[in-house]
Amino acid sequence: MHPIHMLLSPHFKDTLHMNAFARSSILHVAGTIETHYTSGAYSIELSSAIYKSWRFDMEGLPNDLLKR
Description:
The chain is mostly helical. It is about 55% helix and about 0% strand. It starts with a helix and ends with a helix.
């Protein structure tokens, strides 16, 4: 076994299992994050209203400094 594999093996032991659990219980549509920390059904409408006037080319450093 490679020494790096021996060092990292305990850290990655149950990572895939924990990620699968998080995707199935916490991060899905009716999960904890969606129901408690976001605006739920209105999040798409809010983000589309906020980003309606947002332009990607104006967010670069020279243009952003000129805008300020």
